[in-house]
Design goal:
Structural class: mainly beta
Distance between the termini: 47 Å
Largest sheet: 6 strands, mixed
CATH topology: Immunoglobulin-like
CATH superfamily: Cupredoxins -  blue copper proteins
Order of helices and strands: HEEEEEEEEEEE
Strand content: over 45%
Helix content: 10-25%
CATH architecture: Sandwich
């Protein structure tokens, strides 16, 4: 009985936080990331009113671009990949937390409802300079 209650609690928490398993998995040749659109020009693209797509590269030991600025209330879908090793992609104070694996495109969507600076951290050990790998997302009111 305890197991059933536990599974229901996990399911309810996942649904309330809009956590869903990955689908429509995209692949990319990790040796050609820099020549493959849209990762050949990483950055933020507006797709609608307060809707954006952010294409970021995770590579030793940085995110490209390292800084993104968006207005409060923006819905951003992040797409990221790596040309070298496995990295983490974690945005503080959000539910965005992905593994970035060479050859795969990871994605997550978040609505930024509060102004502030959110840290973008690599939370998967990627080498000796791992602790220098971070970026920022500035949400302006």
């Amino acid at each position: 009985m305890a197991l059933v209650v536990f599974l229901i609690a996990i399911g309810a928490a996942a649904l309330s936080e809009n956590m869903i398993p990955p689908s429509h998995i995209q692949t990319i040749d990790p040796t050609k990331v820099a020549q493959t659109p849209p990762f050949d020009r990483p950055g933020l693209r507006q797709t609608g009113q307060r809707q954006y797509e952010a294409y970021l590269l995770a590579h030793i030991f940085a995110f490209t671009p390292p800084h993104i600025t968006i207005p409060v209330g923006s819905k951003v879908t992040f797409y990221t990949t790596s040309p070298d090793v496995v990295h983490g992609f974690f945005i503080t104070n959000t539910a965005v937390n992905m593994m970035v694996v060479p050859g795969w495109v990871s994605s997550a969507t978040h609505v930024f409802r509060r102004a502030g600076t959110y840290l973008l951290l690599c939370n998967g050990y990627c080498g000796s300079g791992h602790h220098y790998m971070y970026g920022t997302i500035e949400v302006k009111g």
